Amino acid sequence: MNIGTRKILDRSFTAVGIGSIITMALALMVVVVPISWNGVGAVFFTGTVEHRKMLYAEFNRGDSQDLSSEVASSERYRSKVYELLSTFEAELETMAPDKKMEYTSKYSQVKIALQALLGPPPGDTAPMLTRFKYGQTRWEKAEERLHELLYESKWDNSNPEIMGKEYFVSRAVAFEGTSLAALFPYVKYNIEKMLLPEFTFYWGFITDSSVDSHFFGGIWPEIKGTFFLALGAMLFAFPLGVIAAVYFTEYAKPGFLNSTLRSANSTLAGVPSIVFGMFGLAFFINTLKVSESKSVIAGSLTLAIMILPTIIRAAEEAILSVPKTYREASLSLGSTKWNTIPTVILPAALPGILTGGVISLGRAAGETAPIIFTAAVSVGSAIGLADVFSSPTPALSWNIYNLASEHEAAAQIRHVQYGMVLALLTIVLLLNLSAIVLRARISKKLKG
Amino acid sequence: MAEEMGKESNRSNAFVVSARKRAFQKATKTAGEGVLFAIASFVAVMVLFIFYFVARDAIPFFQIRGFTEFFTSSNWYPADEPGEFGALAIIYGSLMVTLGSAVIAVPMGVAAAICLSDILPFSVRQYAKPVIEMLAAIPSVAFGFFALVVLAPLMQNSGGPMLMWAWWILVSPFLLLASIVGSDLLTASIKDEKRRQQLYVLFLILFGLIAVVLLFKVGSVLNSIQIITGTNALNVAIILSFMALPTIVSVSEDALQAVGRDIREGSYALGATRAETIIKTILPAASSGILAAVILGIMRALGETMVVWMASGNSSHIPEPWFNYLEAIRTLTATIAGDMGEADQVTGSARFHVLFAMGLLLLIISFISNLVSERIVVRQRKILSGQ
Amino acid sequence: MTTDVTTTSESVSTKKATRDIYLPPERKKVTGGGNPHIVAKNFSIYYGDFEAVKKVSADIFSKYVTAIIGPSGCGKSTFLRAINRMNDLIPSCHTSGSLLFDGEDIYGKYTDEVLLRKKVGMVFQKPNPFPKSIFDNIAYGPRLHGMSDKKKLLEIVERSLRKAAIWDEVCDRLDKNALGLSGGQQQRLCVARTLAVEPEVLLLDEPTSALDPKATAKIEDLIQELRGSYTIMIVTHNMQQASRVSDSTMFFYEGVLVEHASTAQLFTNPKDPMTEDYITGRFS
After folding, report:
1. A277 and B141 in contact by Cβ < 8 A?
2. Domain count, chain C
3. Which of A66, A43, A41 lies closest to A53, judged by CA?
4. Chain B residues closer than 8 Å to A21 by CB
């Protein structure tokens, strides 16, 4: 090969490497950016008067006078809508039977769409589920619902070769000639006056409990549950891991026993997380019976076993990086080995041990599979410290799965899901970031 | 004797203590070390417990149903009465996404590791490392959510064009490179410089044309593909590859760093380019460490639960044709996660035990691959230290 | 048993005066010393099967400075570290013969190595203060041995720092991290830290090899200050240093104690031709 080709190959080799790193950075961005962007929308959004009504009724938050004047002004514009409806209902009675049949079904669709947009009509019996008690609380959802009210969606399946295509038919045209035709332009042009959108900073998303399986309210029970689970796991795993690391670095003598223990450690690190979940169910709940059924303590213990190898490894590394001279100095001053460890070695290794601990804490907070069978429930109120031995808890990681995959109206509460993912990501990434900063500061300090 | 000892230890400068005190010291030391050992062996005990408790609930399944059905049938109807427990399609699904993610993650991960250890200057590396750590830190459920809510609809709506663009972006540089190298190699034996250059250009144009035709033909085929469901094996494989990447990168980087500088310098001194040095001397020396990294990364993908559960479609069948990554599949981990809820109300049924059988299978695979990768790393360390 | 001994340059014979050797200065008188403090009898140290120190017999006199010289790998550090049993950290290391300190066997069955090390302090090649404050570094030893009274600790810290001739430099920043000191200051801090546990013997393992000449001079001055109060043993590869600071010198070669004599005699009139070759620089 001539030298030019060799150089081209060399450059492209470099390009492949740099390309992969850039791809990884992009992948990180592609995952984190949409989640952050949409997740922030759970807290900052354009809220409607319905949102403020809901806050006042469910959480007793907001100014009742402001609210009642707002409600009054929106009612003024809404009353026209209900007038139009009753006019049309009267008109419907006078229609020919076949025409009446046709319009009745169309009219019921309109009523459903309208109710979704504005909430139940006045005088109706209050619905059982909270989600039906209010109209659209978020403006961007209200706009979608408005579109559903104005246009009927239909599917074009004429070409069997390709997948069906969606198209829209204006309802105003469908009701042409009836008194209801006036409704659509009226709603379209007065929707803002009926819903009074304004910029909302809903901090309660973090601190409120959920209402009606996360249709409204916040994610406090999940955040609290996640903290309980992760901190509980640390409480078990951290001391155990550090002591085990001390044994491995300071006392273990090379040999079969020691290498077996080390193999066990890496085996434990490689066990799939779902197997930890099964083990937690079979051992902590079914055999040890630490609790009747799922509980925070069982989940914490399971997570503790999962993060133990990580903590041991980090602590071992930190202890090994303590200079040998510290040990010698301490011993030469008449200290025992037993005394040297807590007074000299552990303090010097502490930042490294803490870094490992913080990263493990993040891992425990983010892991889902081990808590599915041992600790997590999808709906529940925030638990207190006294309940950890007996009751399960909602947790961020589990409820992200649950709301996104199993919730009956997953598509309607995307903002809550995004908000939860963002909350979890923030917790985990902040923990990791602090570990990175901590480590950078240590290496600076050790350099002097 | 004891009296004498007592006298001795009363001396102001004595460092010799009585036999009893010495024995007591020894005993406390042994006891202390014993306690430490007991705590350190907790991990080993837990590993044994995990094997025992998973196997304890897995063995009844094989006693009831035998091995043949589980490993050879792909009829998975656990809820029927009597149920059918053919896990072949599920095992196949696990292998499929694992293999798919390995195909993406291994070349990328190794290239990134080489880049980090040999190519990038330290100042850039400082910023690249946190990126990898962050990627490793993102919880699997967040990846799963992304796969389900962002990537799956995107694939479903514009999967064809996405595939086409991916094909173009990924393959065109390689085809260009292949044409250059090919024409160079084909003309290398010609002595006359002028003729050689003419032929070189000719070959280059010829190969270039073939490459362009190939790019557009395959591109248009890909463009016309309609992806029926966005929750499919490809989606999962892509996301799993991102999750396996950090492991592969960091472990292979360690392996590459372990190769000494003298080996590099020796190769550079003989006039090799950087790429040649890396491929011909450093990679072979670090190959076993990289292999260990690949095994660990693949295990991460095989053992992952949330992403596959949320975004694989959970359909227990072998795709048609068998390599079709655009179909929904189902994996071992997702089956365990999904079915345990329904099964554990009837503890003791085959439906409950079959899930533990799957867990045992995963456990055994992960155990073996861990042992293998550990052996490989130990061997590499021995070779590099010249033993 | 009060014997006033002065090791002076009077005994230097003039017949080898052509040698370029720094002759020791006039020394202050030592009171109450001169009796054998550490006695080795056929003492050997092994690393596994390898005999690193071979059948050494020597008396080391109290309150005097004894230097150990020899080419690198000759066992001089190993011998020094044997005296406070620092070699215990190396698993394969074992000994034979006897090494007595105050008439008691250091490697005896009933020896408490912790009590021993309290009596036999050590300063290492590289300054190794703990990453703690200066105060905590000095107070580490006394605290270990059960002192917790803050006032007393402060007293000990000040006394030790003064003895180590570093008090004036650090008295206003006792709470600052010890790693912020210069290398020479760190080494004197390590000496002070050792003095704080009130040892009888001070082992110095090449204490100046990591320091610049100025810091080295300060350490050597410090050794002169401490002479007469502690039994000091110093391992050095610098023959000038040995001749400057020590009263007697041991020359090791391949684990064997070749010659042990007063410094003046060893440097001016060595008995063994090997010693002569070494101190004249024919090998190193």
Report:
1. no
2. 1
3. A66
4. 112, 115-116, 120, 128, 131
- Give the separation between CA C134 and CA C254, rounded to whole angstroms: 39
Query: What's the pTM?
Result: 0.87
Q: Tell me the one-letter amino acid at A378.
A: S
Is residue C106 a part of any domain in this protein?
yes
Report whether A45 contacts A138 (CB < 8 A).
Answer: yes
Q: Please, what is the Cα angle at B325 between B324 and B330, to 5 degrees?
A: 105
Name the CATH superfamily housing domain A220-447. Answer: MetI-like (1.10.3720.10)
Name the DSSP class of B272: -
Domain of residue C88 covers 9-279
Q: A 399-438 residues with CB below 8 A of B?
A: 400-401, 404-405, 414, 417-418, 421, 424-425, 428-429, 431-432, 436
With a CB cutoff of 8 Å and minimum separation 6, the contacts of A30 are none
Query: Judged by CB atoms within 8 Å, which residues 163-192 of B form the interface with C?
Result: none
Partner-chain contact C128 A329, CB within 8 Å? yes
Helix axes A256-270, B42-65, angle to 10 degrees: 60
Does the interface predicted TM-score (ipTM) exceed 0.85?
yes
User: What tokens were used for C91?
Assistant: 């698993």
Of the listed ranges B1-10, B35-44, B288-297, the least confidently predicted one is: B1-10
Residue closest to A420 by CA, chosen among B154, A428, A199, A294:
A428
Question: Do the Cβ atoms of C210 and C129 come closer than 8 Å?
Answer: no
Task: For residue B291, give the amino acid letter.
Answer: L
For residue C222, give the CATH number of its domain.
3.40.50.300
Question: Residue A391: which of A303, A299, A314 has the closest Cα?
Answer: A299
pLDDT tens-digit readout, A222-254: 999 999 999 999 999 999 999 999 999 988 888
CA angle B248-B250-B255, nearest 5°?
Answer: 90
Residue C126: list chain A partners with CB under 8 A.
325
C116: contact with B, CB 8 A cutoff: yes
What 3-state DSSP class applies to A257? helix
* Helix A64-93, helix A183-195: angle, nearest 10: 170
First to last CA, chain A: 51
Nearest CA-CA distance, residue A234 and chain C, Å? 27
Structure tokens at B375: 């052996």
Q: Which of B131, B181, B245 sits opposite A5 (nearest CB)?
A: B181
How many other C-beta atoms are found inside a 10 Å radius of the C-beta of residue C234? 26
Please confirm whether the linkage preceding B82 is cis (ω < 30° from 0). Answer: yes
* C182 belongs to a structural domain: yes
pLDDT tens digits along A363-372 = 999 999 999 9
Q: Could you give the CA distance from residue A70 to residue A58 in angstroms, rounded to a whole number?
A: 18
Classify B22 as helix, strand or coil: helix
Q: State whether residue C103 sits within 8 Å of chain B by CB.
A: no
